[in-house]
């Protein structure tokens, strides 16, 4: 497969997943029953997994050292916020989850 085409696919999936994550606010900040939350959690983890793989590919193939460092910092920040959101939702801390979600959205829109 052409390396340029693969990177374009990775970037396209990253943008798509970021957009989908930004649209999940209602699901994350409302009080869902356990079954509904389980589905949202699985969807969030699936998106995070694809993002991890695609970001890893984009970072590893980046030729610019500064860009690689910036993308790595951004990816680490995103995954930290995502893990924090999942932990907070499990703990049923809705107000702090809303704040954490906003932080994750800021990372996604960067």
TrEMBL record:
InterPro entries per record: PsbQ-like_dom_sf (IPR023222), PSII_PsbQ (IPR008797), PSII_PsbQ_pln (IPR054099)
Subcellular location: Plastid, Chloroplast thylakoid membrane
Listed GO MF terms: calcium ion binding
Gene Ontology biological process terms in this record: photosynthetic electron transport chain
Superkingdom field: Eukaryota
Residues spanning the membrane: none
Alphabetically ordered keywords of this record: Chloroplast, Membrane, Plastid, Thylakoid, Transit peptide
RNA-binding found in the keyword field: no
Keyword flag Membrane: yes
A GO-annotated cellular component: chloroplast thylakoid membrane
Family according to the record: Belongs to the PsbQ family.
Annotated protein name in UniProt: Uncharacterized protein
